[in-house]
Amino acid sequence: MDQDTLAYARTKIDAVVSRPGLPAITGEVRIVRAAAHHANRPWSATADLHVGSRQIVVLAEEATGTEVVDQLQDRLRRQTDKAAHSGGAGHRTSAPPWRGGQQSA
User: Fold this and answer.
1) What are the two backbone dihedrals, phi and then psi, of residue 23, each rounded to the nearest 5 degrees?
2) What is the per-residue pLDDT for 99?
3) Fewer CB under 10 Å: which end of the chain, C or N?
4) What are phi and psi of 31, to 5 degrees?
5) What contacts 53, CB < 8 A, 6 or more positions away?
């Protein structure tokens, strides 16, 4: 990856993960270009992040490095917003009695 694309990616990803109001974010982002010359979308990006107690995984594929970074930024912003607004409460229902859940009396 060239230095311009790397700097562009760092700027865009930092803009998403360093927004005020978000819980602590850790993880990694990988951006690669396929060696195959016949690939329609040779650039791919993967972000595997922990936003507070939640894990998010975001994938993107595009024709150029800047396009893949832009797509990754949009998807990351959407997913980090969802993770931040859901809090730690979760939306799980309790397990039914036959799976070890609480029985109503």
Assistant:
1) -70, 175
2) 78
3) C
4) -130, 125
5) 23, 88
Q: Name the packing angle between helices 3-17 and 65-86 (round to 10°).
A: 10
- The C-alpha atoms of residue 6 and residue 19 are separated, in whole angstroms, by 20
Share of the chain above pLDDT 90, in %: 53
- Rounded CA separation 11/25 (Å): 16
In tens, the pLDDT along 46-61 reads 999 998 888 999 999 9
Percent of the chain topping pLDDT 70: 90
> What is the per-residue DSSP string for the chain?
--HHHHHHHHHHHHHHHT-TT---EEEEEEEEE-S-TT-SS-EEEEEEEEETTEEEEEEEEESSHHHHHHHHHHHHHHHHHHHHHHTTT--PPPPPGGGTPPPP-
96 pairs with which residues across the strands?
Answer: none
